[in-house]
Automatic annotation (TrEMBL):
PANTHER family with a match to the protein in the record: ENDOPLASMIC RETICULUM-GOLGI INTERMEDIATE COMPARTMENT PROTEIN, PROTEIN DISULFIDE-ISOMERASE 5-3
Keyword Transmembrane: yes
Transmembrane segments: 23-42
Compartments where located: Membrane
Residue ranges occupied by any Thioredoxin domain in the UniProt entry: 114-263
Source species of the chain: Stephania yunnanensis
One GO cellular component term: COPII-coated ER to Golgi transport vesicle
Matching InterPro entries: Erv, Erv_C, Erv_N, Thioredoxin-like_sf, Thioredoxin_domain
Membrane topology, from the record: Single-pass membrane protein
Database matches in Gene3D superfamilies: Glutaredoxin
Taxonomic classification: Eukaryota, Viridiplantae, Streptophyta, Embryophyta, Tracheophyta
Identification of the protein by name: Thioredoxin domain-containing protein
Keyword line: Membrane, Signal, Transmembrane, Transmembrane helix
Length: 493
């Protein structure tokens, strides 16, 4: 027969003798220390619970963001004219796109990277079908040879001054020479410089007049410039407004273009020719000349996700370039890959993942400037690009928090016998870095908090309570064993 006396033996909360409940100074101090310890350990556990822990893994790139990668760029070239600046892309699959203009904008800058005017709009380049007359015999020198000391005098004397900036070694300059001299002879006969004086055709040898050609931002040969009287006023930065001719270069086409320039001017006109614009088909062969010798290129391009190159260089199908005079120094203001991340989301990602984002814009702000006299230098950048995704595991389910492309960059400068370029070698990794944000369970947090409070309280109780609780615990253990033994015997019977 089970008695209630045996039932009382399992009581965990036994009455404490009254003399053990009296307060003491040592007990109060120990209680304060215990409370502070509990609060400190609770704060540390709470901070650990709220902190974001991550795990990193490398997996095969199986993302579904398409086969093309977007490249955003903003690069300044203080010595590359917007007139010939070209952005090209190519890859190992044979894809090649030259002179991308649809998503690229160009702005003229000076050698100190200061913007000079509005966006440079070159317009569609006419296709030059005739590069000169098929004449290889001797011809008269009817165009005026202009030098640095008399160039300003001619430009202020004649309402229209058309100058052929050439180089004797240039193939295209030599193709143009016969038709240019023949055109100069025809225009001299029709508009005598002494009697009429409305137009003059001249030429400048850029291998001799180097500074004069640099002053007029000549980088490709031949360059035909049209100077109108009144438009050659230079400001403090040294730029002046004039036009470039890009039409056919045979005698008939040149004569037609020159006639169109003279037609709006009255006879014996020595006034300004700045506002006299002809409105005929030959205007399609002219466009504004660059204000300065530098260019800032900004925009974006799409490339396939395979190894390839992004190349920025001087390009023209009807001009020659002197590699020794080309300077591809540049400053990278911005270069990034993939979709643009909003600032709010990017800041949130950096707050959650402090190790993310260190290599997104590795080249931003870098300067690659060659010294004067080392113009024919190709600057190459070798970029290894890897995709990084951050997955959030909080709130019980995983979702993509952010994705981006990080890269490493190694740059080199080397002399080139060809036309120097700025080249970005792109090497995309087939792997991707997966960063998973791991959260701790609330039940684990509550368990740890209970363990902290109970453990500190147990460790900090006075010695007499330790003896009492130890004795009680021993009694309870023996009582529990006795009950279990008796229960076992009854079950066996």
């Amino acid at each position: 027969m089970f008695s209630f006396g045996k039932f009382k033996s399992v009581d965990f909360y036994r009455k404490i003798p009254r003399d053990l409940t009296e307060a003491s100074l040592s007990g109060a101090g120990l209680s304060i220390v215990a409370a502070l310890s509990m609060m400190l350990l609770f704060g540390m556990e709470l901070s650990d619970y709220l902190a974001v822990s991550t795990s990193t893994s490398v997996v095969i790139d199986s993302s579904n963001d398409g086969e093309f990668l977007r490249i955003d760029l903003n690069i300044s070239f203080p010595a590359l004219s917007c007139e010939f600046a070209s952005v090209d892309v190519n890859d190992v699959l044979g894809t090649s796109r030259l002179n991308i203009t649809k998503t690229i904008r160009k702005f003229s800058i000076d050698h100190n990277f200061r913007p000079m005017g509005m966006e440079f709009h070159p317009g569609p380049l006419p296709i030059v079908n005739k590069h000169g007359d098929d004449y290889y015999g001797e011809h008269d020198e009817d165009s005026v040879s202009v030098k640095a000391d008399n160039f300003d005098g001619y430009s202020h004397q004649f309402p229209i001054l058309v100058v052929n900036f050439y180089a004797p070694w240039c193939y295209w300059s030599n193709r143009l020479k016969p038709s240019w001299e023949k055109t100069a002879k025809i225009m001299k006969e029709r508009y005598d410089p002494e009697m009429d004086g409305r137009i003059l055709l001249a030429k400048v040898d850029c291998t001799v007049e180097v500074e004069l050609c640099k002053r007029n931002h000549i980088q490709g040969y031949p360059s035909i410039r049209i100077f109108r009287k009144g438009s050659d006023v230079r400001d403090e930065h040294g730029h002046h407004e004039h036009e470039s001719y890009y039409g056919d270069r045979d005698t008939d086409s040149l004569v037609k273009a020159m006639e169109a320039l003279v037609a709006p001017l009255p006879l014996e006109s020595r006034g300004l020719a700045l506002d006299n614009k002809s409105a005929n088909a030959t205007d399609n062969a002219k466009r504004p000349a660059p204000l300065t010798g530098g260019c800032r290129i900004e925009g974006f391009v799409h490339v396939k996700k395979v190894p390839g190159n992004l190349v920025i260089s001087a390009r023209s199908g009807v001009h020659s370039f002197d590699p020794s005079q080309m300077n591809m120094s540049h400053v990278i203001s911005h270069l990034s890959f993939g979709k643009q991340v909003s600032l709010k989301l990017f800041d949130e990602a950096k707050r959650l993942i402090p190790y993310l984002g260190g290599s997104i814009e590795r080249l931003n702000g870098r300067r690659y400037i060659t010294q004067h006299g080392n113009e024919n230098v190709t600057i190459e950048h070798y970029l290894q690009i890897v995709k990084t995704e951050v997955m959030s595991g909080r709130s019980g389910r995983k979702h993509k928090l952010i994705e981006e492309y990080e890269y490493t960059a190694h740059s080199s400068l080397g002399h080139s016998m060809q036309i120097p370029v700025a080249k970005f070698h792109l090497e995309l990794s087939p792997m991707q870095v997966l960063i998973t944000e791991n959260s701790k369970s609330f039940s684990h947090f509550i368990t740890n908090v209970c363990a902290i409070i109970g453990g500190v309280f147990t460790v900090s109780i006075p010695p007499e309570f330790v003896l009492l609780f130890s004795a009680v615990t021993v009694v309870q253990a023996f009582t529990l064993c006795y009950i279990l033994d008796n229960s076992g015997e009854k079950l066996q019977n």
